[in-house]
Structure to design on (133 residues):
């Protein structure tokens, strides 16, 4: 959810700040990261990072989160993820019991058949695959 914040007397002088609603009474680290990420994306769209974000807990209390902490918490994570996704090969295919419900099932199955992957065998665990590779 976005909250419109008035910034000054000129036309169009407003910005948005992120708000998330959670089912806990205290702010968890994951929820803080979530509001920081939403604020980061919103900042990219607005060309300016919002000042704060709000996490509304199960008790209805609003907890403000300072978006400046994104610079020391979130930005290093994003940089690491960008580096990881840009330089690493994709993770290996590992077929498992969840594959029938996955949207990538066909692509993974084709790749596994192409490389003759051990996960094609029934009841083969990742531990067994690692031992034989």
């Amino acid at each position: 959810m976005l909250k419109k914040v008035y910034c000054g007397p000129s036309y169009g002088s407003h910005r948005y700040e992120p708000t998330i609603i959670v089912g806990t009474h205290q702010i968890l680290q994951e929820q803080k990261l979530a509001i920081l990420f939403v604020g980061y994306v919103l900042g990219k769209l607005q060309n300016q990072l919002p000042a704060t974000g709000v996490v509304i807990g199960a008790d209805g209390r609003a907890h403000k989160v300072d978006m400046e902490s994104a610079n020391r918490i979130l930005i290093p994570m994003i940089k690491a993820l960008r580096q990881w996704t840009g330089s690493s090969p994709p993770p290996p295919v590992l077929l498992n019991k969840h594959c029938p419900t996955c949207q990538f099932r066909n692509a993974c199955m084709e790749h596994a058949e192409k490389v003759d992957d051990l996960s094609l065998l029934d009841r083969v665990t990742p531990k067994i695959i690692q031992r034989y590779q």
About this structure: The helical segments are 29-46, 70-87, 105-115, 126-132. The chain has four helices and four strands. Strands lie at 2-6, 14-21, 52-56, 62-66. The radius of gyration is 22 Å.
